[in-house]
Amino acid sequence: MPACVWCNRDIPQVVTLDQILSWGPFPVQEVCQACRERLTPITGSCCSRCGRQQRAATICHDCERWRDAVINRALFQYDAGFKAYMQQYKFQGDYALRVVVQATLARALQRATYDVLVPIPVDVATWQSRGFNQVTGWLTGQPFFQALEVVADHKERPQSAKTRAERLVTPQPFSLAPNACKVLQHQRVLLLDDVYTTGRTIRHAIDQINLSGAKAVTSLTLAR
Questions:
Q1: How many CA atoms lie within 13 A of 215 on its CB side?
Q2: What's the gap between Cα 193 and its chain centre?
Q3: 99: domain CATH number?
Q4: Are 24 and 110 part of one and the same domain?
Q5: What tens digit of pLDDT does each residue of 150-182 get?
Q6: 78 in the same domain as 25
Q7: 52, 138: one domain
Q8: One domain for residues 27 and 118
Q9: How far apart are CA 197 and CA 202, in angstroms?
Q10: Which of 91, 147, 158, 189 has its CA 20 to 30 A from that of 1?
Q11: For residue 6, what are the domain limits?
């Protein structure tokens, strides 16, 4: 009996008659139902700009202060459950947990309208310490183009350790990859990141992508 990749409890495998008659391999569940329910999907009304869950589909106060037309969609609320997930997956480097949200992300990408998917990159020091980019880890089997590069070899402090005010004055951390203009020109680009907090990182990325001659740029984040 397989164990849940998050809580390590055994997962009873339910096989349907259709699966038996298909003569194909039975799908193996890697995440138990209890762990799936630890993450809260964003449903119903949300901010029409950043995707924050709220009572009405209006522009939230944060987006009003930005005074731009950035459009982001998010899949989960950044609550205690998602924080616990990111702590283990991103900060503790538990790469197996990428499967927890892969199916949800894959469905969202199928519904999205874009030509090129561009994940937010990580710096060299992060690659060396963690061993993976948490964003591209979710993209097994999904085509993407790494159009952005991190300018510095390392960050003095991670974004997660900064206050809102400190995030908002963060200098431009990205540059375009050498062949980005050739690939992105006249294309609809979808940026992908893990968490939308203040929106500063996404806007830095959009500023760089716009330099490539892209036709349009929107973004999708796992959480808001």
A1: 8
A2: 4
A3: 3.40.50
A4: no
A5: 998 655 656 666 676 676 778 999 999 999 999
A6: no
A7: yes
A8: no
A9: 10
A10: 91
A11: 1-33
b (16+ CB within 10 A) / e for 156-188: eeeeeebeeeeeeeeeebbeebeebeebbeebe
What are the structure tokens assigned to 62, written together? Answer: 């944060």
In the chain, the number of structural domains is 2
Residue 127 and residue 24 in one domain: no
Both 103 and 183 in a single domain?
A: yes
Residue whose token pair is 């449903």? 43
pLDDT tens-digit profile of 50-86?
Answer: 999 999 989 999 999 999 999 999 999 999 999 999 9
Helix H, strand E, coil C: the string for the chain is CCECCCCCCECCCCCCHHHHHCCCCCCCCCCCHHHHCCCCECCCCECCCCCCECCCCCCCHHHHHHCCCCCEEEEECCCHHHHHHHHHHHHCCCHHHHHHHHHHHHHHHHHCCCCEEEECCCCHHHHHHHCCCCCHHHCCCCCCCCCEEECCCCCCCCHHHCCHHHHHCCCCCEEECCCHHHHHCCCEEEEEEEECCCCHHHHHHHHHHHCCCCCEEEEEEEEC
**Same-domain check for residues 105 and 176:** yes
d(CA 199, CA 61): 13
